[in-house]
Design goal:
- This protein is of the alpha/beta class.
- The chain is built from ten helices and 13 strands.
- It has helices at about 20-25, 70-80, 95-100, 105-110, 115-125, 195-210, 225-250, 255-260, 265, 280-290; strands at about 5-10, 35, 40-45, 50-55, 60-65, 85-90, 110-115, 135, 140-145, 150-155, 165-170, 175-180, 215-220.
- The strands form two sheets. Strands 2-3-4-5-6-7-8 form a seven-stranded mixed β-sheet. It has a six-stranded mixed β-sheet with strand order 1-9-10-11-12-13.
- Strand 12, helix 6 and strand 13 form a beta-alpha-beta unit.
- Helix 6 packs antiparallel against helix 7.
- The protein is globular, with a radius of gyration of 19 Å.
- It starts with 6 loop residues before the first strand and ends in a 7-residue tail after the last helix.
């Protein structure tokens, strides 16, 4: 089936490797893939790694991200409980392995892979030869996915240099990729083009698209609302303000890393629960905000 038959264009506009995270998830036999319906055609899949968005049509399924390679069989099994249609399109929100690990497997199943051009560059840089995006874009797209207008847009230097968010206009669903970690500190991959300022700008752009009824699929964490999203933005801006004051007062990275008062409010809410601890987020904010080349 040619791509035009299931991917109808409307208009075209111009990690960290997660190796540590992967080893923490080495026992994939214990992982369950669960599906949460967000509408009659949109679902969120949770398992190990980044949350997966699913758009189901009469003839095909499009998924956003695909977690780790060993989970592909489980993901496909869960999708079969939703629809017997094949996965025809995989869209990568960025290049990290907990979101793209299944690319090659889905490619073998006949799926076309799509992502921002920097995702392809970074996957190729890791000597990956299969599962590479074959459709790339530089800025944004308006496309039709399963008879729904979808807005895909790149956000600069946020979590990485290749992040995309997808907004399903009729279902009022936003998939943020890792530009949103619901209820926890985010991972900002400075070595892959990420930055604090870019990350905050990405969240602001996403918030502008949402309303009180929007269902938000974060890169990690539970399904979110605009209230959750705004709380996340408030946290980011608060930490930025506090760290900039410390930098202006001549504090070093180690000083800021040791200053638990900076993150005290959010530590009490268990934001440091997961991969990024409160000390790590303080160090990342210092490194990004003190480096002029990373400011946007």
């Amino acid at each position: 089936m040619p791509i035009a038959s299931f991917f109808k264009p409307i208009a075209l506009f111009s990690c960290f490797s997660f190796s540590l995270f992967s080893s923490a998830q080495s026992n994939f036999d214990a992982v369950s893939i669960t599906a949460t319906p967000l509408s009659n055609s949109i679902y969120m899949l949770e398992g190990a790694g980044g949350n997966i968005g699913v758009s189901v049509g009469d003839e095909s399924i499009t998924i956003i991200d695909n977690q780790f390679a060993p989970l592909t069989t489980k993901i496909l099994k869960t999708l079969k409980t939703i629809s017997n249609a094949p996965v025809k399109v995989v869209i990568n929100s960025h290049h990290h392995g907990d979101h793209t690990g299944g690319n090659s497997n889905f490619e073998k199943q006949g799926a076309t892979i799509m992502a921002h051009e920097n995702v392809k560059k970074r996957l190729k840089a890791k000597a990956q030869k299969t599962g590479l995006p074959v459709i790339t874009y530089r800025d944004k797209l308006h496309i039709n996915i399963n008879d729904e207008d979808v807005f895909i847009f790149h956000v600069d230097n946020a979590h990485t240099d290749g992040d995309s968010m997808l907004y399903f206009t009729e279902n009022n669903v936003l998939h943020t990729g890792d530009t949103f970690f619901n209820g926890r500190y985010p991972y900002i991959d400075l070595n892959s083009g990420g930055s604090v300022n870019g990350y905050i700008n990405a969240v602001k752009a996403g918030v502008m698209l949402t309303d009180a009824k929007t269902k938000i699929i974060p890169g990690h964490g539970k399904l979110a609302s605009k209230k959750d999203y705004q709380a996340f933005l408030t946290m980011l801006e608060d930490l930025k303000s506090k760290v900039l004051i410390e930098i202006a007062n001549g504090k070093t990275e180690d000083d800021i890393a040791a200053n638990t008062a900076i993150t005290k409010t959010y530590d009490a809410l268990n934001y440091g629960c997961c991969f990024v601890t409160s000390e790590k987020i303080r160090r990342v904010f210092y490194k990004s905000l003190s480096n002029k080349t990373l400011k946007l």
